[in-house]
Design goal:
600 residues, alpha+beta, FAD/NAD(P)-binding domain, 4 domains, five-stranded parallel beta sheet, binds flavin-adenine dinucleotide
C-alpha cells in the first residue's frame, strides 16, 4: 500500500478512535483494536485490528502497525536491529532481497506488487549495482550499462506496479546506434533505419547484403524462441529443457555466434559487426551459443536507448516505486549469510551479526557468491565450491572513467557510442577467455554520454569511459593488476590518441580505473568477472543456477548469474521469471489502512 492510497479519512483530524486504545511502552508488542467512524462510511463503524510494535514511543510517539501495514520508510530509529526482532510470522509477508542491482530492484518491485513487505539490502552507498554511478570533479561516471535495449521490459515492470515508466524515466532513442572503427581505417555505422543499414552493408561489402538479410531473419526466429519464450519463463525443470532440445537442434544452438555470422557474410569486418554483441553480456563470440544472435533483432525492432541521468536514474526511480509500495532499501549494509530454519531460508544475518527474519529471500548477489559465501554453512548438492570453480566465468573488464576539460567542441565525429577494433579478433578473444593472458593489443568500447546528456559533465567538458575486456582473476598465472593497471591505462590512452581522440592527454582532468579486482571487491563478483557465469550453451537455461533455488526452499535468485542471464533485458527478465515462481503474499500488506500513525 502506498501513502497516496491511504484514504483521506485517515487524516488524523478526521479519525475518531472510539474503543480499545492502549498506550503500551517501548519495544512492546500488543494487539490493538480500533473502531473508527469515517464520514465516507456514513456513520457505519469500521473495525480495525492490529498487532503493533511500539518504536521509541517517548521520542517519536509512533506506533508501527505490523499486521496490515508496511512502513513507507524506516522509522527515524528503525535500524536492522529493529527489524531483527520481528518474527517472520508477524505482520505482512516479508521478503528480503539481497542486492540492489537492477535485477534485485526489479524483483523487489514485483514482490511489492504481490503484496510483500520488501526489504532490499545492498553493501553499496547507492542503488543499481553495476548500474550505479560515481560523482567526481563535477562529472557523473555511469559505471556500467550504457545501452538500454527492450524498454518494453521496463514498461511492463512499471505497469505491474500500477505505474507508468515514461513518467518516471526519460529514454532517448539513439540514431545511429554506434560506430565501429576498424584498424584499416574503415568504419561501420549501425542504425535502426533499415535502408541506411542496407546501404552501410553494401558500402563495405556489396556481396553480403543478401546474407545480412538472412542473418536478420535468423536473428528474429531466435528472438521469438530464445527471448520471448525461453527467456521469459522459468527453466528450473529438466523437462522444460528436454522439451525445447529439438528446437535448439533445429536452430543449431551448438554453433557459435561468430560461426553463424560467418555462415551468412564473408567480409571479416561485417562478421565482427554481427558477432561482437555477446561481449556485452560476458560471452566469447567464438564459443557462445548462436541463440544470442537474437540481439541484432532486439536492436532493430526496439532500438538502442539512453536513459537521461544514466542507468542510475532508472535505479533511483525503482527505489522510489519500492518505497511507495511500502518497501525499504538499506544501503551500506552487507549480508553475511542466508539463515535457515526448519530446512527453509528464514532470513539473513548481516556482517555486524544482526539477523532479519523473512518469509522468503531473493538473492541478487552473484549466484557464485550466494552459494559459495552466503550459504557456506548450508549443505549444497549442485552448486558446490568445486562445481563453481570449474564453471566458465565471463571475462573481466578494465574500465577507465575520465573527464576532459574544454572538449565539447572537439572530436566532432565522436558520438555517444564508439567501438575501436584492434588488429586481432579470434586470437585476442582466445587470450582473454581461454589463455587468460593480458594481450598487448586491445579493442575498446568508448562511451561519451556528454553528447546526449549535458548533466553528466560541467558545461563545455566531456565525460567518458573506455572499456576493454580482459581475463578474469581465476586463470592460472592471473594478471597482477597492482603492477599492470597503470601501464595498461597508458596503452589505452595511446590507442585513443592515435585512433579516436587526438590530443586527449592534454585535456584529462579526472580519472578513475576499475580492474577485475574492483569488480571482485565492489560487487563481490567471483573471479572479478564482469557478467557472472559465461552464457555458453551448457551454462544456459536449465544449466544455469535456477531462479528458484535448487539448494534451499524459500530462496530465489535474480540477476546476471541466473536465468536468463546478464545484461539489462536479462536481469529485468530474471525478475519477471521470479514473479511467475513466487506466490502472492499469503499475508499481504493492508489495502486500505495507514502505514504509520501517531498514537492518538
Ligand atoms: C562496464 C559494464 C557495461 C555494461 N554495459 C551494458 C549495456 O550497455 N547494456 C546492458 O544491457 N547491460 C550492460 N552491462 C551488463 C549489466 O550491467 C549487468 O548484467 C546488470 O546490471 C547486472 O545486474 P544484476 O541484477 O545482476 O546486479 P549487479 O549489478 O551485479 O548488482 C548486485 C548488487 O548486489 C550487491 N551485493 C552482492 N553481495 C552482497 C551482499 N552479500 N550483501 C549486500 N549486497 C550485496 C552488490 O554490491 C551489487 O550492488 C554492462 C556491465 C558492465 C559491468
Amino acid at each position: 500500500m502506498t501513502q497516496s492510497r491511504v484514504p483521506s479519512p485517515l487524516n488524523r483530524k478526521r479519525l475518531r478512535v472510539v474503543t480499545g486504545m492502549a498506550v503500551p511502552s517501548d519495544g512492546q508488542k500488543c494487539k490493538l483494536s480500533l473502531t473508527v467512524f469515517l464520514p465516507e462510511r456514513k456513520g457505519k463503524p469500521l473495525e480495525l485490528n492490529f498487532q503493533v510494535n511500539v518504536v521509541n514511543l517517548a521520542r517519536h510517539s509512533i506506533i508501527e502497525f505490523m499486521t496490515n501495514h508496511t512502513p513507507l520508510r524506516p522509522a527515524p530509529d528503525s535500524t536492522p536491529a529493529t527489524l531483527s526482532r520481528r518474527p517472520a510470522q508477524d505482520g505482512p509477508s516479508h521478503a528480503i532481497v539481497i542486492g540492489a542491482g537492477m535485477g534485485g530492484l526489479a524483483s523487489a518491485m514485483r514482490l511489492g506488487a504481490k503484496g510483500y513487505r520488501v526489504t532490499v539490502i545492498d553493501r553499496l552507498d547507492s542503488p543499481g549495482g553495476r548500474g550505479s554511478a560515481i560523482h567526481q570533479g563535477g562529472h557523473r561516471f555511469d559505471l556500467g550499462p550504457t545501452i538500454v535495449t527492450v524498454p518494453q521490459g521496463l514498461r511492463d515492470l512499471w505497469a505491474t506496479c500500477g505505474r507508468d515508466f515514461d513518467r518516471d524515466v526519460t529514454l532517448t532513442a539513439m540514431e545511429p546506434f554506434y560506430k565501429i572503427l576498424f584498424e584499416d581505417g574503415s568504419t561501420f555505422t549501425a542504425c535502426q533505419d533499415d535502408a541506411a543499414m542496407q546501404a552501410e552493408i553494401a558500402r563495405l561489402s556489396p556481396g553480403d547484403v543478401a546474407g545480412y538479410n538472412r542473418f536478420l531473419k535468423d536473428s528474429e526466429a531466435r528472438y521469438w524462441f530464445g527471448y520471448e519464450d525461453l527467456g521469459r519463463r522459468s527453466m528450473h525443470r529438466l523437462l522444460d529443457l528436454i522439451k525445447v532440445l529439438p528446437t535448439f537442434g533445429m536452430m543449431r544452438a551448438d554453433r557459435s555466434v561468430y560461426a553463424h555470422a560467418a555462415l551468412r557474410v564473408k567480409d571479416e569486418r561485417l562478421r565482427f559487426a554481427l558477432s561482437f554483441h555477446p561481449l556485452f553480456i560476458g560471452g566469447d563470440p567464438f564459443n557462445v551459443t548462436s541463440m544470442y544472435i537474437l540481439v541484432s533483432h532486439l536492436e532493430k525492432a526496439f532500438g538502442v536507448h539512453y536513459a537521461q541521468g544514466g542507468v542510475s536514474a532508472i535505479a533511483k526511480a525503482m527505489v522510489k516505486v519500492i518505497e511507495a509500495q511500502g518497501g525499504t532499501v538499506l544501503a551500506d549494509t552487507e549480508v553475511d549469510e542466508i539463515t535457515v530454519a526448519q530446512g527453509r531460508a528464514s532470513g539473513v544475518k548481516l556482517l555486524d551479526g544482526q539477523k532479519i527474519a523473512a518469509d522468503l529471500v531473493v538473492s541478487n548477489a552473484d549466484a557464485g557468491h550466494t552459494y559459495d559465501r552466503l550459504m557456506r554453512n548450508t549443505p549444497r548438492k549442485r552448486w558446490t565450491p568445486p562445481r563453481l570453480k570449474r564453471s566458465r566465468w565471463s571475462m573481466g573488464l578494465y574500465v577507465w572513467y575520465f573527464g576532459t576539460k574544454g572538449t565539447r567542441d572537439l572530436w566532432q565525429d565522436v558520438g555517444h557510442h564508439s567501438i575501436v577494433v584492434g588488429p586481432r579478433y579470434r586470437e585476442h578473444i582466445k587470450d582473454i577467455f581461454i589463455r587468460g593472458r593480458l594481450a598487448d593489443d586491445m579493442s575498446l568500447y568508448v562511451h561519451r554520454p556528454s553528447v546526449t546528456d549535458p548533466s553528466v559533465a560541467p558545461s563545455g567538458d566531456d565525460t567518458f569511459y573506455v572499456l576493454s575486456p580482459v581475463p578474469h582473476l581465476g586463470h592460472d598465472n592471473g594478471v597482477d593488476w597492482a603492477t599492470e593497471a597503470e601501464p595498461y591505462r597508458a596503452k589505452m590512452l595511446a590507442m585513443l590518441e592515435s585512433r579516436l581522440l587526438p590530443g586527449l592527454s592534454k585535456h584529462v582532468t579526472e580519472s578513475l580505473v576499475f580492474t577485475p579486482e574492483t569488480f571482485r571487491d565492489r560487487y563481490l563478483s567471483p573471479m572479478g568477472s564482469g557478467f557472472s557465469i559465461e552464457p555458453r550453451i551448457l551454462q544456459s537455461a536449465w544449466f544455469r543456477p535456477h531462479n528458484v533455488s535448487e539448494e534451499l526452499p524459500g530462496l530465489y535468485l535474480a540477476g546476471a548469474g541466473t536465468h536468463p542471464g546478464a545484461g539489462l533485458p536479462g536481469v529485468i527478465g530474471s525478475a519477471e521469471v521470479l514473479g511467475t515462481l513466487v506466490p502472492d503474499a499469503p499475508r499481504p500488506r493492508g489495502a486500505d489502512l495507514p502505514l504509520r500513525m501517531a498514537a492518538e
